[in-house]
Every structure is written in structure tokens, then in C-alpha cells.
Design a protein that fits this description.
This protein has 118 residues and is mainly alpha-helical. It has one domain (3-116). Helices cover 77% and strands 0% of the residues. The protein has four helices and no strands. Helix 1 packs antiparallel against helix 2 (31-61). The longest helix has 31 residues, at 31-61. The protein starts with a helix and ends in a 7-residue tail after the last helix. The relative contact order is 0.15.
Amino acid sequence: MTWIAAAALLGALSVVAGAFGAHGLAGRVAPEQLDAWRTAAQYALLHSAVILALGGLEAATGRAVRLPAALLLAGSVLFSGSIFALVLGGPRLLGPVTPLGGLCLIAGWLSVLTLLRD
């Protein structure tokens, strides 16, 4: 799968998650859970745009973007996915997955610096 396709899927899922949070969860979960859901949807959407840009960079220049794109995708899935699951009543064991996803996101952003090399 190309990074552009991965970004498109993540972006679409982010919009679905945001809409579900706004219309399906409002009034059904605690306000702080709804805030966490919104944050997860926003992070996933933001990072889908970055992965899309990385895919465009790779397509335009042939420059490999695998490391930052993979870290950002993994981080989005782990961070946002664990929050979505926890808000929906998933096992509390998923709690430690959220910061692991956050670390992947941070590593992904820092690995963008590797693209500055010639």
C-alpha cells in the first residue's frame, strides 16, 4: 500500500470517528471521555495529512519516507485507536498503549529530520 493510500484511509477513518463522537457519543459518555475522543480524532486527522504530504514527497522526488511515515501511521493507530477503544469500554490494559503511540508520533516527527540529509 502506498503512503498516499494509507493517509486516505486514516483520514477517512478520522472523519468517521469525529462524526461518531459528535453525534453518536454525545450524551452517552462522560464529558472527559468525549474530549479524549475528539483529541484522538484530531490527532489521527492531522497525522493523516502529514503522511499524505510525505507520500507526495516520495512520489515527486523518489526520496524514501518509510521511517517517518511508518512511525506516524503506527503512532496514530496506537494513540488514537487505544483512546477510541478505551472510550468504548475496551479493556483497561490498553491504557499503556496510548503513551506508546505518542512516543511513536514524537519519533515520527523527529525522523522527518532524516529527510534533510542529501
